Amino acid sequence: MICTEFICIVRNQPRTTWEELVNDMKRAGTTVSKVTVGRTLSHHGFKSRIAQKVPLLKSSHVQAHLKFANDHLDGPEEAWEKVMWSDETKIELFGLNFTRRVWRKKKEELHPKNTIPTVKHGGGNIMLSGCFSAKGTGRLHCIKERMNGAMYCEILSNNLLPSVRALKLGRGWVFQHDNDPKHTARITKEWLCKKHIKVLEWPSQSTDLNPIENL
What we know:
The protein has 215 residues and is α/β, with parallel strands linked by helices. The protein has 7 helices and 10 strands. 35% of the residues lie in helices and 21% in strands.
């Protein structure tokens, strides 16, 4: 009975702590120790792990992601070799990274109950802009000022285009960037059009679809 209750609690509320499990059982009239809790859950494949942080998705985001996947499902793998992936990343200089532990089994790290939704925000950090393709990495640029559309175009001109030439992507290459307001600004769209750069349509709040997330 105790085992069944443990499993039920962590399945429905994986963020439950050791203390909460012990107290829940105590209120139900059963006294158990943390050791018993840990041993029981471990026996059934559960282990306390750090919850994965994922973008907060709306229903429209989910549908857009599904459409993107279906649109490219049957495409040739060689087509991805012509894509120049890009992104900006923030590196925290100070402060603690927020973590939360959850009870889960192996390969359940991306189940909604086992993740922590996140939104983008500012802080003490440095910003980097980079790109890469199947042929290698491109230039890495340190963004020292608050970036706007005009600055983004300058970064693309000074870093993206030389990277494309250095990696010898040739004709027909495709540029990927997300839907950050600076990327979708009028000045950016006009610059990309003027340079005849084909842009890969990208769903909002992409859940790490961009392989640059692994660099």
